[in-house]
Amino acid sequence: MRLSYVLGLLSALAVALPLSGAKAQEAIERRVNELLGQMTLEEKVGQLNLVSHGPPLRWEDLSEGKVGAVLNFNNAQDVARAQALIQQSRLKIPLLYGLDVLHGFRTQFPLPLGEAAAFNPRLSFLASEWAAKEASHVGVNWTFAPMADLSRDSRWGRIVEGFGEDPYLGSVLTAARVEGFRKGGLAASAKHFAGYGAPQGGRDYDTTYIPRAEMYDTYLPPFRAAAEAKTASFMAAFNALNGEPSTANAWLLTDVLRKQWGFDGFVTSDWVGIGELVNHGIAADGAEAARKAILAGVDMDMMGLLYINHLPDEVRAGRVPESVIDESVRRILRTKFRLGLFDQPAIDPNRSEAGFPSKESRQAAREVARETIVLLQNNNDVLPVKSGTRSIAVIGPLADASHDMMGPHAARGHKEDSITVLQGVRERAQSAGITVSHAPACDLMCRSTEQLPAAVEAAKNADLVIAVFGEPQELSGEAASRAHLELNGKQIEVLEALAATGKPIALVLMGGRPQVLGPIAERIPSILMAWYPGTEGGHAVADVLFGDFNPSGKLPLTWPRATGQLPIYYNRLPTGRPTIPNNRFTLHYIDEAITPLYPFGWGLSYTQFDYSNASIAQKTLESGQSLDVSVSVTNKGSRIGQDVVQLYTRDPVASRSRPLRELKAFEKISLNPGETKRITLRIPVESLGFHLDDGSYIVEAGAIQVFVGGSSLAEPIGEVEVTKPIQLPQEERRASASTSVAQ
Ligand code: BGC
Predict the structure, then answer these.
(1) What CATH code is assigned to 609-742?
(2) To test the ligand 1 pocket, which listed residue (97, 144, 246) has its Cβ within 8 A of the most ligand atoms?
(3) Mean pLDDT of all residues in the chain?
(4) 73 lines ligand 1 (CB under 6 A)
(5) What is the pTM of this model?
């Protein structure tokens, strides 16, 4: 999947919001400058002010030109009221209406981490497009998404909002999400810029240390992909990066974003992020915080009221040049013109989202959800449900949890819209003449096991147990860091009791991150990761359980055996003492295996795929050429199925240690029983190198090892030789790209 190809394809589809050619761009700049010329300092600063619905919003501020954007407006009535007030203001500059629309507005799609498991940018685009279509229907025009924060630490609750641990997968999916939002009518805000996904100890908001070269190689590429996909805005992160809070970080916000990447949209702070510069200890008061943030490159103040309260005086006192304010206003006005907001008719206040979920949105949600489900293990082929099955016991506190199906950040989601796993299984079982019983076994947090005996009884009386456990949604998302990733409450005890019945059990796990399974991974033969699958989740899970849809999800992050293994990720650096079994003085734990429970890119199918005849087209490479790898993939089983062909490389001898493996390309393919396809994955030689601290990029001469397969355990298939070193200055570096041609 070539990133630029994906972007091209997606932007060809993205027509709902006008993207400008050079002429249109010039016209916009003219209009921006004309308008700016008419504005008072107070009106300019008003454009930088982003206020939430509810306190402290004073509605009259809208007609007085003191607000440039609002957030948490989620219905047409409020939008219409705000629009009418804007019409009473002197310059009538339309507002941005922002909301956290991450994975759906009314119809809920899987949370982004789950959606990433589909390894399918088309579906990421589709999910974002639907979310945007529904939100923009009621007047929302700006989403605080996608979250482009890479994370290697599932203690961090917000890992659920992103794409997992891989910069290449993250870049492809972030771009697809930006494009999908645009197609559906929402401007995107790539967040949280940057390094927010690597807080120490996995603690949300805590500080981050990431060397600059590592920023460029690992944490920045998904943001860069968002910029290349023309996200309208970025959001500065809460955290401090290497001691410099992101909200006042001129290196990030000006040097990298504006100078190196050429981004000309605007940057908003996160929620009172500017005021928090005082807590970070780099500003004595609100005025200094406002000054530091605007000078570093934050254009908009979310909920701080510090820009509106202090910047006019800062300008008058000569501490902030008015030209800096002008540039920020320009970026915001430019965005509003690009979005066509000045030419949009007023919204009908009676519009509502009540027409959703529609038949079509449900269909799309089901299509996406079933591709996100990962079959982690399937010992004894417990799944799919066998044809002779007469009765199923659906057990667990999450089996019928309509609220938890939606996951965190559900915008206008109604739990009543959700199809739960119990409902999905009941519906499907009924059509096959299978009886279904249900027992929760414990409460949602699984603190009490009072209901366990009834569940054990139900299990004993059934041919098959479908257990639905995991992480209730309250334990996931923002401010939901966990120090213990074991299945919460008494879930292990309950699952052990169910396993002791000797009945075949399939465990459907829900949650926003990998959970530590402990003994359960050995006691329960079949385990599916369903994430928070959304409105149609119950149907999607049933599709997979019954084999109507062959699971094809792959893990977008490494699944640990123990919390103490975190952070854990596949693309780690080698050590001087690689693991040698039974040798204490090599890389290992004395109380846990060094390997993860399931590796990155892992996911089984009900069929088997065989990889053979891998070949590399050209064994020596120089600038401008590409690494072309071909492999034949055969479906050896009797069901149609999809696999994700994954290509990894390693630079084994370089001037600095390079990761043991790096994903460089992937392609999701579908194969009929017995069918063989020959797949070619192509990587430009320019993406085989690494960054230096100054952001320049080098590909050193020497060997590159190549691995191809269906997970990050892919087999080595040979080496290529880069004959001459290649050096690229930062601005010429394109996001890593590869392509695939099914033959
Ligand atoms: C979060 C952002 C979010 C904002 C507005 C903050 O607490 O960090 O991700 O967009 O609130 O809801």
Answers:
(1) 2.60.40.10
(2) 144
(3) 95
(4) no
(5) 0.96
